[in-house]
Amino acid sequence: MAAPALMSVRPADGPPDLSIGQLGRLFEADRVPRYTSYPTAPHFRTDIGPGRAADWLAGVPMDEPASLYLHVPFCRQLCWYCGCTTHITRHAGRINAYAQTLARELDLVAGYLQGPVPLAHLHWGGGTPSSLGTADLAMLMRRIDERFGFTADAERAIELDPRFVSKELAECLARIGINRASFGIQSFDPAVQRAINRIQSVETTGLALERLRGAGIGAVSFDILYGLPHQDVASVLDTVDSVAALAPGRVAVFGYAHLPALKKHQAMIPDELLPDAAQRLAQFAAITGRLEAHGYVAIGLDHFARPDDPMAQAHQAGRLERNFQGYTTDRATTLIGVGASAIGSFREGYLQNHVDLKAWRAAIAEGHLPTARGLRLGADDRHRRAIINRLMCEGQADLRAIADAHGAAVLAPEPERFARLVELGIARRVGDLIRVPARYRPLLRLVAACFDRYLAPGQARHSLAV
């Protein structure tokens, strides 16, 4: 078995030997974005609204495939760790009404395009998108096919709660063309599950996986969390071994972001039950070592994939990208977001729909695009975004090459923050090449933050850096 990374390190060029405990204590209070976009969503502005959205949709190129994200904000049960925009309901009428409004929004969006734009990627997120039920899922997929269409090799993905994957649902998903599914696992430790209000056995997860594979959906991703209450290294390793036995093609490993000031239900998780920064790093290091021992390839900040998975191949070829869903093989320049709170990305900038369900429904009922806010990208934003994306995807960035591509001067990192990271060996600079050693992958966001001109110190709306 491979030894966990980050336990004790001594960079060759001379920074001090840092134990994992020392690393954790050094960055215990640091809060930085996850950089699924730059600039990040807290900086979106309300003066970007439906009119701007209409203009940007009209400018979507007809000769390039686009991507579509659909947000379904419903779950049957509240998981206390959840940081998503979601509502707890089992009311069929309310869910069906949402599906009908979603269909009308698809019509509105398509009406502003110059013509049908083929989709290379489709992602159903939430919440739990399958809460719509098989009839509404099929109806909406027909609408998408009519209004957009798909490229021959399009990826059609959906996030699922393994506790609610019936044989009927699996067969429906296969019929409507879904070819990738993502399961939220988080932890298989019963004590952790009780503390986060999500009871989900290995057997239940395995049955859901069997149903999907039996229906012909073989591409499956799992999400697991570290930094949860009652977790320790032994606990996360047990979960990783159970996950590996089920053999998903991809595993995403996220650090739990405890932000009860923003997500009130997270107050159900007492602060004193949470591991500290050093323990979080130890858990991530253990997970990394065990997944690599099971044959997974480390990708970017927090993803792992089998060597034959398209994401591993994109990473190897330098074609890995990052968007609001995290790491992706999607290279489309247009991502259209549909549904309450959904975010889209266009050449001109970002758009976000109303988070409030009533406001979202009301706008669509009046025949308006439900855009609540957004951000127009300036030249400096694009330049910094390119640097941050390369750091997050490849662990390195050639500042000169990126500057030349943007017709600009080389951008310098924030000096004080960057000097601290260089001193510790977490970042290295040779000429205009900045590189983060592989053992410091969990700290990539700290290096990316050196190029974030919007970042204010100590912002509680961002998650811990480790």
Number of domains: 2
- Per CATH, the architecture of the largest domain is Alpha-Beta Horseshoe
Overall mean pLDDT stands at 91
Count of helix runs? 15
User: Fraction of residues in helices?
Assistant: 25-40%
Coarse structural class: alpha/beta
Largest sheet: 9 strands, mixed
- Stretches where pLDDT falls below 50 for ≥5 residues? 1-14
> Regarding CATH, which class of the largest domain?
Alpha Beta
- Briefly note the CATH topology name of the largest domain: pyruvate-formate lyase- activating enzyme
Tell me what the structure shows:
There is one protein chain. The chain has 466 residues and is of the alpha/beta class. It has two domains: 8-36 and 379-451, Arc Repressor Mutant, subunit A (Orthogonal Bundle); 41-338, pyruvate-formate lyase- activating enzyme (Alpha-Beta Horseshoe). Helix content is 35%, strand content 20%. The protein contains 15 helices and 21 strands. The strands form six sheets. A nine-stranded mixed beta sheet has the order 11-12-10-9-8-7-6-3-15, sandwiched between helices. A three-stranded antiparallel beta sheet has the order 16-17-18, with no helix packed on it. Helix 8 (233-246) links the parallel strand 9 and strand 10 (250-255). Mean pLDDT is 91; it is low at 1-14.
